[in-house]
Amino acid sequence: MKAFFEGIQYLFVNILFTPLDFLRSLELSSWFAANTINWIFMIICAVAMVYWIKQLKIFEDNGEENQDTTAHSFFK
After folding, report:
1. What is the pLDDT of residues 16-47, one digit of tens each?
2. Which of 34, 37, 63, 64 is placed for a possible disulfide with 27 were both Cys, Cβ 3.0 to 4.6 Å?
3. ∠ CA 13-19-48 to the nearest 5 degrees?
4. Distance of CA 53 to the CA centre of its chain
């Protein structure tokens, strides 16, 4: 049983976290490069928010937006 958990430790520490260890060591030379994962997630979130707001605008312009408070049964 101990070997199983040591195998999981080896997988995560020595294989899966190697790119993150590289980014951690890169932080001393370039903060922006070390935070590339964060920048990617922020860009994805910004694009998703713009898309969502554009879709809300389309439904609002078509008159399909149901803003009645009784749209959900728990609001009654």
Report:
1. 999 889 988 988 899 988 899 899 999 999 99
2. 34
3. 120
4. 18
